[in-house]
Amino acid sequence: MIKVCIDPGHGGSDRANRGSNGYVEADGVLAISKYLKEELESTGKFQVILTRDRDKTLTLTERGRIAARNKVDLFISQHTNAGPKGAGGTEVYYSVDIPGDRELAAKLSAEVASVLGIKDRGIKTRESTITRGEDYYTVIDAAQDGGVPHVLLIESAFHSNPDEERLLMKDENLRKIAQAQAKVISGFFGVDYNRRGSGEDSKKKEEPRPVKAPGKSNVMVLQLLVNSLGIRDMDGRKLIVDGMIGPRTRYAVQRLPVTSINSRNRQTTLYIQNRLNQLGFKDNAGRALVVDGVFGPKTEQAVKKFQSANGLVADGIVGPKTWMKFLEQ
């Protein structure tokens, strides 16, 4: 089962965020969260945890830790936004430490904006002003620090915008938001999703399987490499070779052999040389690498350039962090 933790923001003693016509964020996002839980669980593939299922006070850190403690595959914190009356639209935040979530966040923002007929404000990260490399939002930081592989915060619409507040005050629109999110989340994990409830046509429609993200066509090659070396996911299973960067692929790729100069692992070296050539990283003489499976000085030079370009220690050793950068390119 794929484990998801949904966090309905605010609640309990924190009920101040509201629109001018009676919408209360704590109540609206709780309804969205319950609908999303229902939609995901209806596929039979998801186990869903809510950080709260009633009007309850929770700290931001507690919310993230609930997700980490339950070892979920995805954490999503539900919110609606506030700003000047003219501001509107949907936006999604992802962790500064999980750049691979960029595509998932973008799809989520676009889908919710589409079903509501409002602006897609796109995706964002926000870095802490106190600690470099940490997330500004405590709820994101707590979940990410706890080891949750995919962490998002969604602002589905602006309750400070009178037109969007009216949308949020209709229960059918809260369900539409949940259905839009369920569609994207299901697709990300390779699960077929059919819309249900709210008077929607419930006739089965086969959802297309997720496609490879642009610029990540090498994911399938890495998945095949993992399988050929006998590396398995957290449940001891082979990876599905689908080109998608999910928690199982991340888990397995980080367990690829550490590969460095004079390494005798020909398979990993062949991948490294080929991928460096594809990405344009050359030796110190400016020449492309010979793809021969021998990790020599020239391959080490190109690896160091790749590491430096990706903010890693340029030591020429392909370990877990470097493997993850290869995965995310």
Question: Can you walk me through this structure?
Answer:
The chain is built from eleven helices and six strands. The protein is of the alpha/beta class and 329 residues long. The protein has two domains: 2-188, Aminopeptidase; 219-328, PGBD-like superfamily/PGBD (Muramoyl-pentapeptide Carboxypeptidase, domain 1, Orthogonal Bundle), CATH 1.10.101.10. A six-stranded mixed sheet has the order 2-1-3-6-4-5, sandwiched between helices. Helix 1 (25-41) packs across helix 6 (171-188) and helix 2 (60-69) packs parallel to helix 4. The protein is elongated and about 70 Å long.
List keywords for this structure.
hydrolase; 11 helices; N-acetylmuramoyl-L-alanine amidase; Muramoyl-pentapeptide Carboxypeptidase, domain 1; N-acetylmuramoyl-L-alanine amidase activity; 12% strand; Aminopeptidase; 2 domains; 329 residues; 6-stranded mixed sheet; MurNAc-LAA_cat; single chain; N-acetylmuramoyl_amidase_3; alpha/beta
Topology:
Elements: E1 2-8, H1 25-41, E2 46-50, H2 60-69, E3 74-81, E4 90-94, H3 102-116, E5 120-124, H4 138-145, E6 151-158, H5 162-168, H6 171-188, H7 219-228, H8 247-253, H9 266-279, H10 297-309, H11 320-328
Parallel strand pairs: 1-2, 1-3, 3-6, 4-5
Antiparallel strand pairs: 4-6
InterPro entries: MurNAc-LAA_cat, N-acetylmuramoyl_amidase_3, Peptidoglycan-bd-like, PGBD-like_sf, PGBDSf
Pfam families: Amidase_3, PG_binding_1
Organism: Fonticella tunisiensis
